[in-house]
Amino acid sequence: AGMSDYVSKPIVQRDFYNTLAKWLQADPDSNLLAREQMNKSGEVVEEKPTQLPDLLPGMDVKQALKRVGGKQKVLRDILSSFNRRYSDAADQIRQECKAGCYAEAQRLAHTVKGLGGTMAAEELQESASVLETLFKGLQGKTLPGDFDRKLKQFEISLNVVNSSASQLLELMEIDRQTKEKVEKVAIPVSE
After folding, report:
1. Which pairs count as long-range contacts for 5-12, CB under 8 Å and 24+ apart, including other chains?
2. pLDDT tens across 61-101, in order?
3. Contact criterion met (CB below 8 Å) for 108 and 128
4. How confident is the model over 171-182, as pLDDT tens digits?
5. Are strands 59-60 and 55-56 parallel, antiparallel or unpaired?
6. What percent of the chain shows pLDDT beyond 70?
7. Distance (Å, rounded) from C-alpha 131 to C-alpha 101?
8. Based on the number of CB atoms within 10 Å of its own CB, is 100 exposed (0-12), middle (13-18) or buried (19 or more)?
9. Which residues of the chain have pLDDT under 70?
């Protein structure tokens, strides 16, 4: 009745499916991912990918893509949602702390930590983890003396990632618009 295996966060799609295949006793060559999504070395590939930088300040873009199965649309949706919902997470945490809602501040730090992992934003993930740990068991107590320093480090990491996410979203949008224009002017070739 114990645990036989696990997949750690952030979940890498290929590892997740390979672990499932192992325990479902699937043919290892049949991989649960569609064959056209993987090359012979097991790397996930995407059709017509946008040329993106491997690294941006605060983010390992190559690793983030790997974590979402090479799907740029999924990464774009995550980045867009992150910028829309959590760009002011440091201010949100400050407000929750002023109201004495440490459990809500902990939940917010936990969410940003998870998203930081998915986006391969290690410094943001780590600084959010530090805050999450700080808030555990804090109900009714006062904030420790180094709280402001830890929140500032989180805020700096958050701002760097927000800026990089915005740059990446802009690159993806330019590429999407360019592809649309090319598709509109493409002339079918008769055989």
Report:
1. 9/114, 9/117, 10/67, 10/114, 10/117, 10/118, 10/120, 11/67, 12/66, 12/67
2. 999 999 998 899 999 999 999 999 999 999 999 999 999 99
3. no
4. 988 888 887 777
5. antiparallel
6. 73
7. 14
8. middle
9. 1-3, 10, 12-13, 16-17, 20-49, 183, 185-191
The Cα-based distances of 37 to 31, 72, 122 in angstroms read 10, 13, 27
User: Are 35 and 11 spatial neighbours (Cβ–Cβ below 8 Å)?
Assistant: no
Distance of alpha carbon 105 from alpha carbon 84, whole angstroms? 18
Output the pTM of the full model: 0.73
Task: Determine the residue type at 35.
Answer: R
What are 144's two structure tokens? 């420790």
**Which of these, 186, 173, 184, lies nearest to 75 by C-alpha position?**
173
